[in-house]
Write a structure and sequence with these properties.
The chain is an alpha/beta fold and 266 residues long. It has one domain: Aldolase class I (TIM Barrel, Alpha-Beta Barrel), CATH 3.20.20.70. Helix content is 32%, strand content 17%. Strands 7-6-5-4-3-2-1-8-9-10 form a 10-stranded mixed beta sheet. The longest helix is centred in the middle third of the chain and has 14 residues. The structure holds S-adenosylmethionine (SAM) and iron/sulfur cluster. The site of iron/sulfur cluster has 13 residues, from helix 9.
Length: 266
């Protein structure tokens, strides 16, 4: 699948829930969010069937994200269902890892290849502050479990304010070095103003090379994180939504005033 600007579209990120067991200060308001209704959320069958269509048109990389994907009931089943879609050669998940020690082995057995884990600081007090109540030890346990389960590579997503030379980012980098983990820096975005961000060491933010589509938890197919457009896969049908999203993918992102990370999935 190529879009109007000759970009080959081969990467689908699927947000499976808008719920989360943390409240990161840059992602969610402290009081929580108005949660989508149960019937608004795509079922696993719908996600698998849409993914099949996307794969039949050239998608080969799929990432499961959220909200926090591990809080959605039966997530291992979804991984198994997606792993069974012929043509996906890279199946990954982005998680805060709080519950990963419980799930890592089952996820691996179900067909997950690798994980990205969010970690902005290795100071437990700061971690509690940033996540509004999270326990760093859970994440460390989750990382160990992922390694033991053979999820590989394990990448760490580290949100920075401005540069990778900030104290927390340096300490996270040191931790990654000692644990043999890859680190990716993500510049913190101001979601209210929809600020554009380049991912240092990652492929995001480079519009000319962008190969992604995003499916939100309630079934909107979004061609660009930095744009408010989305195509409803239930209303339009899977094929039509897919073609409209690919054809409607903007040449370059500007800003998104309606989106939030816990729905779109980052
Ligand atoms: N809950 C999972 C997690 O935290 O890894 C997956 C979903 S989370 C929305 C996906 C990524 O978006 C995380 O790495 C998180 O750090 C990032 N993110 C959330 N809000 C952000 C913001 N305002 N600016 C930059 N990155 C953000
Ligand atoms: Fe939850 Fe991830 Fe958002 Fe943090 S960044 S509040 S872990 S969805």
């Amino acid at each position: 699948m190529y879009d109007r600007f000759e970009r080959k579209i081969e990467y689908l990120r699927i947000s499976v829930t808008d719920r989360c067991n943390l409240r990161c200060e840059y992602c969610m308001p402290p009081e929580g969010i108005s949660l989508l209704g149960h019937s608004d959320i795509l079922t696993y069958d719908e996600i698998r069937d849409f993914t099949r269509v996307a794969v039949s048109h050239g998608v080969s990389k799929v990432r499961i994200t959220g909200g926090e994907p591990l809080v959605r009931k039966g997530i291992v089943k979804l991984v198994e269902m997606l792993a069974g879609v012929h043509g996906i050669n890279d199946l990954s998940m982005t998680t805060n890892a709080v519950l990963l020690s419980d799930f890592a082995h089952d996820l691996k057995n179900a067909g997950l290849k690798r994980v990205n884990i969010s970690l902005d600081t290795v100071d437990s007090e700061k971690f509690r502050e940033i996540t509004r109540g999270g326990d760093l030890r859970d994440v460390i346990r989750g990382i160990s479990a992922a390694r033991e389960a053979g999820l590989d590579p394990i990448k760490i997503n580290c949100v920075i304010q401005h540069t990778r030379n900030e104290t927390d980012a340096i300490e996270v980098a040191r931790f990654c070095m000692s644990e043999d983990l890859e680190i990716r820096y993500i510049r913190r975005m101001d979601l209210v103003r929809g600020y554009f961000s380049v991912v240092e060491g990652g492929s995001g933010g480079d519009c000319s090379a962008c190969n992604r589509l995003r499916l939100t938890a309630n079934g909107k197919l979004k061609p660009c994180l930095f744009n408010s457009i989305g195509f409803d896969i239930r209303e339009l049908g899977y094929e039509k939504a897919l073609h409209m999203a690919v054809d409607g993918k903007p040449e370059c992102g500007s800003h998104n005033t309606t989106g939030t990370f816990y729905n779109i999935g980052g």
